[in-house]
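Annotated sample (chain length 212).
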Amino acid sequence: MLLLGEQIWGGLVNLGIFGLGFSVLIRNPKRKINRLFFLLTLSIGFLILFAFLSEVPRDLSISLILTRICLAFLPLFGVFLFLFSIVFPEEDKVPKFIKNTFVILATILFFLTAFTNLIIKNVEPVSWGFNVVYSNLFYLSLTFWLITTGLGCFYFLRHYRKITQIQKTQVKYLFLGLGIFVLISFLVNVPLRAMVGSDVYYRVGNYSAIFF
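Output written by the structure step:
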């Protein structure tokens, strides 16, 4: 269960993320780059929000629902990062088929994760809260996230030489924050989880989102 300090910290992190997204969107809602950045911040914000909310209920069936919704935003985060990277600062020529395929796959993975047991099978109680019991298809969702995130990083690097000095600074901060978040989240949820046999350190991944 969450301590009061963790609840406050989680609230502040989400306010910061949602506030950043809205501040960019309202500057010019018609620009594709602004809308995609807004969707990117929403996806990571909801991922973190539902991760924290899943720790609040004492009823594990509710925690299971919230955990599934939380991890359903993982593929959306990856695809929005990819789509944002190809329009920053100007849209790159990427075949529409590829973009549509990624969007369709992300949508399918979202619904499979949120509303079925094909990705998240169950949660089991432990002394500090609960462990997530993953189905084998979870690693398909994780692979999709890694591919889209990797492609996003590739396009950011590809555009780096063409952008202004201010935009280069923005990309550096984005890469630093994203790199910390992705690295810590991956280490906590894959190798560290395998070594200790539980999700006891998963909150560290949530806290690292403040760097993003």
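Annotation: The chain has one domain: 4-211.
Annotation: The mean pLDDT is 83.
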